[in-house]
Amino acid sequence: MSYKAKFKVWRGEGGEGKLEDFTVEVNEGEVVLDIIHRLQATQAPDLAVRWNCKAGKCGSCSMEINGKPRLGCMTRMSTFEEDETITVTPMRTFPVIKDLVTDVSFNYQKAREIPSFTPPQGVRPGEYRMQQVDVERSQEFRKCIECFMCNNICHVIRDHEENKPAFAGPRFLMRIAELDMHPYDVADRQESAQEEHGLGYCNITKCCTEVCPEHIKITDNALIPMKERVVDRKYDPLVWLGNKIFRRPK
Amino acid sequence: MSQTTSDAPVRRQRAQIKVRTLRTDRWWLAPLLTFLGLSAFLVYGVWAIFDTPYYVPGAEYIAPFSSPCLATSCPEGARLFGLAPFGDWYTLPPGLLILGLPGGFRLTCYYYRKSYYRSFWLSPPACAVQEPHGKYTGETRLPLIMQNIHRYFFYAAIVIGAILSYDAILALVHKPLGLGSWILLLNAVLIAAYTLSCHSCRHITAGRLNHFSRHPVRYRAWTFVSKLNAKHQPLAWASMFSVMGADFYVRLVAKGIIAFPYA
Amino acid sequence: MEIERHEYDVVVIGAGGAGLRAAIEARQQGKRTAIVCKSLFGKAHTVMAEGGAAAAMGNVNSDDNWMVHFRDTMRGGKFLNNWRMAELHAKEAPDRVWELEAWGALFDRTKDGKISQRNFGGHEYPRLAHVGDRTGLELIRTLQQRVVALQQEDYEQHGDYEAYIKVFAECTVTRLLKDGDRISGAFGYWRESGSFVVLDAPAVVLATGGIGKSYVVTSNSWEYTGDGHALALLAGADLINMEFIQFHPTGMVWPPSVRGILVTESVRGDGGVLRNSAGERFMFNYIPEVFKDKYATTEEEADRWYTDQANNRRPPELLPRDEVARAINAEVKAGRGSPQGGVFLDVSTRLPAEEIRRRLPSMHHQFKELADVDITAEPMQVGPTCHYIMGGVEVDADTGAAAVPGLFAAGEVSGGMHGSNRLGGNSLSDLLVFGRRAGAGAAAYVDALPARPKIGQEQLDEAREEALAPLQRTGENPYEVHHELQRTMNELVGIIRKAEEVAEALEVVEKLKERVRLVGAAGSRIYNPGWHLALDLRNMILVSECVARAALLREESRGGHTRDDFPGMNPEWRRKLLVCSTADGSSITVEEKVQPAMRDDLITLFDRDELKKYLTDEEMSEFDGISK
């Protein structure tokens, strides 16, 4: 059941490089990452690729396969035709270190800029009481394996490097939503989501949701609800007036 | 000697790939179809505004694009509750008075925004396809920051949706066996479903709360709206075609082009 | 050439659960802490843990308490555990789990809003705090975010996120450095650039996980090359219990490329059953004598247990992992296996599809995406996979200190806590409990230190030379050597072991040592996986030799060590630990050591009848003396 597949793999250090052609054996049941590993073991021992769990749980092997961001370990070879040339490139939005490995430090920097979980004063560990329905929304976002493919595909920074300082990307806007919906979080996140983390840059074109390997509904369940919460705070005169008059506690 | 150490200046750059996309599938198909679909709707809408007649007396059909009819220029039976608050100074087509509301609702709708940003503005045309613009600020400044008023259009859309339902029921009462009555009803249902599946509606029911468990009724409403919301895109298209179809059908009946007994 | 140098109080090697918890503790005690990890921050193997963290919180069954948990742990480890560790673990696990919640973790909830707990193999009560079947991810993310929170605090105070805690991601440590007999730092290289880095620190916490990459079929990722085990050996510390390797009974067997990837035990905890090719629920035939009265003997009783645990005994599918793994192995050997060489694990006929998707989302996802199997409609095929090593660095239970001053270890790389076999769910809690203790231990050690140990230039030169060597050779491809090692260990020192086979494996290992000295890595130093593997081989060979030598010596079958030629447990061997060390950095010597007797108040937690199965007559008479 094995056959020879044609691959084009981007190789290079720093930004410079090119697509190199390979012909490589493919066996039944294999995924793209297996083929990259076979290239390492047989033809290009120094071909760089980042990977860990090989089960779609760690989010390390993000790459672009035929132009689409994918996890190498979760892309079955059987989804391609045998005579198809498969192009594998590094994530486009981040600087390349070597071959398929990119410098994803942008994401770690953004993670740091989001204020951490802030529980109310005086609740001791062990005293937390939360209902399942109250944690489910945030739990969905915590399925995130941080493959950073949503940040990679988001055109706000993919096509506009200059927006990077102002925009946290879907991953971390979702993190804000996760904390804002956390039943015990007391930090004020709505104002800063818009002003500091660039929620307004999102034009909800949903590519983040399309590429999410965990099938998290990033746009519908995190970004849009967050935008609506921001509207409550910043753009809705009635809510603003209501809060002024009734001083509703959050 | 070629530099390959960690501080070589070439590092910290993206992979230099010159093509806009390496996608091999027909990524342009979806935005193209969306473009055609939305364009057809716009063209039809402009035509419908200026088209008369739009009312079928007796059967009490009124074309959705012209309802509610609020001016004296409307045929008497077509007026909502017989009212004509705009009096006789208003001589433009009655549709212009109200179409801004459902139009605005759709224009600021989170799904339609996605679809026209992609298909009209190409920002981006499809995922992982480079957009043609040099600059991008999204919805951070005027005019696009106005998208945030979506919820007000939602309130208005509820009213319009209710009027369309009222129209359909009125037609059903007057002509229960009329095909038009049922078409209007189907349209009213789809419009209602689309309106209720709106993201703002989801937020208002309970999305804005952090403790669902303390608001069981609102939580149940949210659960229901969330289910509808997952189908917001198909409902957007279905209701768009149904409103066009129902509108066109009523006009054809009004013009006598369709004239069989159960029309 | 100038080498990048940093000064820290505590260096933690490994950024999995144990490493992060240790680093958090060290930083909370005011120590400048470095975390060094081979992967990106947050990718550690802990994310693979699915079932949950065992902690006797008693949220679901209020009869649960630390003593029950302690008993379960000792029983699971066949009484070979370091009992002090088992005690600390059972007592402290609830606090460690609650603490996570205060750092933002969102566990699944009970009806009254507490942390929900699930059943798991070997645990008497529902005990595992969990989030669906992705508990490990929740744990690593929470700890990662806690580290970030501390960095944010430091930023507020000092204007620098990394003032007190810095992550060296994609950085591999190849040598521990010493000043006399004390630890003085660590030497490593950046995977990204290949340039070297020296961390000058009086205390090093090893938290590098396990050794699974010495086997072909394993649930472990490439990182699991036994680095910490080897670093400790080379620094002069001892390893214990290295013969005990846990083969998880249910790994995927197909497709070949994912062979070994884990199928969580929760599948069985939630009702999944094991069947052979004849459709028989074969686990009923494999209930060992010591567990006879704790497990159901009929399918009817086993099925009733899922809904009424008070009045029924648990199904034999939930026996400890070693028992289930051996049973599956036996069924396959007897020709009753599934088409692809495993057995069937079926949940599709046991639960409604919707329920399966809700309770086992990532398993559903994993099978759908990797094997194109819909587990709500058809059974999975599963077989044993190398999963966890019980053995590791011998440490002091209370502080995590190894024999070398300044060296600490926590998590999988440390040994003793789990005895001869680890219970599912005990590793996540182990990470938290002993990660914290090792971090605190290291901090206290640094406080008590009169002067900072120094790093000698000679050691640095040696380490550098050793690291560069493979790049300067044009020898054999390291992948070949690695494959041969994996095959050897898998076939000859696998689940079932025989003296001749293990001896043969040792011969192969000797030959591989020679070949490792000759492997070459083509290419530059920038992100060169061939070079990285060539360096990791040293560690894998050292550790494999420990496993094989200890396996050859221990002439009994216990937990994660099964000798075909010595079936059954031998109470004499229960008291003995096998201690591995190396004098010359390449050959391993193993010595026997007597395990200290359990403290009186702990041993009396057990029934006499139960102890009788494990202890020698001499020990029993001592027990009778105490319990009177």
Automatic annotation (TrEMBL), chain A:
Keywords: 2Fe-2S, 4Fe-4S, Iron, Iron-sulfur, Metal-binding, Oxidoreductase. Gene3D superfamilies: 3.10.20.30, Alpha-helical ferredoxin. Pathway: Carbohydrate metabolism; tricarboxylic acid cycle. The keyword Oxidoreductase applies. Pfam families: Fer2_3 (PF13085), Fer4_8 (PF13183). InterPro entries: 2Fe-2S_ferredoxin-like_sf, 2Fe-2S_ferredoxin-type, 2Fe2S_fd_BS, 4Fe4S_Fe-S-bd, Beta-grasp_dom_sf, Helical_ferredxn, SDH/FRD_Iron-Sulfur, Succ_DH/fum_Rdtase_Fe-S. GO terms for molecular function: succinate dehydrogenase (quinone) activity. Residues 5-92 form the 2Fe-2S ferredoxin-type domain. Belongs to the succinate dehydrogenase/fumarate reductase iron-sulfur protein family. PANTHER family: SUCCINATE DEHYDROGENASE [UBIQUINONE] IRON-SULFUR SUBUNIT, MITOCHONDRIAL (PTHR11921:SF29), SUCCINATE DEHYDROGENASE IRON-SULFUR PROTEIN (PTHR11921). This is Succinate dehydrogenase / fumarate reductase iron-sulfur subunit. It comes from Nonomuraea roseoviolacea subsp. carminata.
TrEMBL record, chain B:
The keyword Membrane applies. It comes from the Bacteria. Keywords: Membrane, Transmembrane, Transmembrane helix. This is Succinate dehydrogenase. The chain crosses the membrane at residues 27-50, 89-112, 152-173, 179-198.
Automatic annotation (TrEMBL), chain C:
Its EC number is 1.3.5.1, 1.3.5.4. The keyword Flavoprotein applies. Residues 9-428 form the FAD-dependent oxidoreductase 2 FAD-binding domain. One of its GO terms (molecular function) is succinate dehydrogenase (quinone) activity. It comes from the Bacteria. Residues 482-591 form the Fumarate reductase/succinate dehydrogenase flavoprotein-like C-terminal domain. Keywords: Flavoprotein, Oxidoreductase. It holds the Pfam family FAD_binding_2. This is Succinate dehydrogenase / fumarate reductase flavoprotein subunit. It comes from Nonomuraea roseoviolacea subsp. carminata. The lineage of its organism: Bacteria, Bacillati, Actinomycetota, Actinomycetes, Streptosporangiales.
